[in-house]
From TrEMBL:
InterPro entries: C2_dom (IPR000008), C2_domain_sf (IPR035892), C2B_Copine (IPR037768), Copine (IPR045052), Copine_C (IPR010734), VWF_A (IPR002035), vWFA_dom_sf (IPR036465). Residues 1-104 form the C2 domain. The keyword Repeat applies. This is Copine-9. GO terms for cellular component: plasma membrane. Residues 148-352 form the VWFA domain. Belongs to the copine family. Keywords: Calcium, Metal-binding, Repeat. Pfam families: C2, Copine. One of its GO terms (molecular function) is metal ion binding.
Amino acid sequence: MQLCANKLDKKDFFGKSDPFLVFYRSNEDGTFTISHKTEVIKNTLNPVWQPFTIPVRALCNGDYDRTVKVDVYDWDRDGSHDFIGEFTTSYRELSRGQNQFNVYEVLNPKKKGKKKKYINSGTVTLLSFKVESEYTFVDFIRGGTQLNFTVAIDFTASNGNPSQPSSLHYMSPYQMNAYAMALKAVGEIIQDYDSDKLFPAYGFGAKLPPDGKISHAFPLNRDSEDANCVGIEGVLEAYFESLRTAQLYGPTNFAPIINLVAQMAAHEMEGSQYFVLLIITDGVISDMVQTKEAVVNAASLPMSIIIVGVGPAEFDAMEELDGDEVRVSSRGRFAERDIVQFVPFRDYTDRSGNQVLSMARLAKDVLAEIPDQLLSFMKSRGFEPRPALSSSSQQMHQEV
């Protein structure tokens, strides 16, 4: 909302006044709690304050007819602000917007008692009032928005020969390697939000039989028509199978797989689908320029990218893609949203290098930003959640 005032009382000896407003929510027991302070406007009796946003909860605790008290003060450097006057309103009154009823007389009870001719200490006028609904991630999931989960696994030679125990791709009969663990931890949570449980899964950076062609986006199940695997178990199976036949090679290119998922996301722009790409990698990106371009393009689509770094490499480039500090840019264009979340797998192993780690913690940190990223896309496009689906499917999501 935005407010202005007219002809406020002059409080300063030399100048006019430096007015600001304080909003109070009235509590059940008759006390008042401050819910908002405007900025101070210097040296004027006719201030126009900046528009501000306040949760309905803070203003009136959801009770539209509850009294909202507003005090008008003259700011003083020493903190002993002078009281100019007060008025009361309610959410319901304010929600009528700008009209003759939303012009309030600012009254000072002390002056009223002393001066016979006292009318008021000025007026405050509501200039604009607008209510926006804030939706949650759960609202969209209940309304039927599907998460589509795609996996991409790094098959570059820097991972080490899969038949050697030192390799990050080593298939031990006794324990899962870091790739499988990261995949399982993240995938098992995401699969609850994906009703068909079909996950496209790809490898990149390998030479493939029969002709030794290098591929940066090959289906792990070797089906060029349909890269879907059934459930996380299906993805793991296809991954282990691919390790037996593909030759680890290079370079480490991310852009092809990001662009592949982006193409799918570009066909589903009406808010019913959201795409999450999980890239598990051991190393340094070879195509950083192209990857940044791909991320900037993908930021305007319904998609997020999770990168889990496995092994001991330096992951500086990954931190750069994770736009928490500085938004990713390419050729002068900044990403519309922050869509990349990077976590190093080693932060979740214990000191001895033991791979028995807190999978729940890994999954939680990896997926922490997805809800807000989905919401930022929906909000930017003005999408609202559909009404909740029937109770049986809702029950499934409540259990989640």
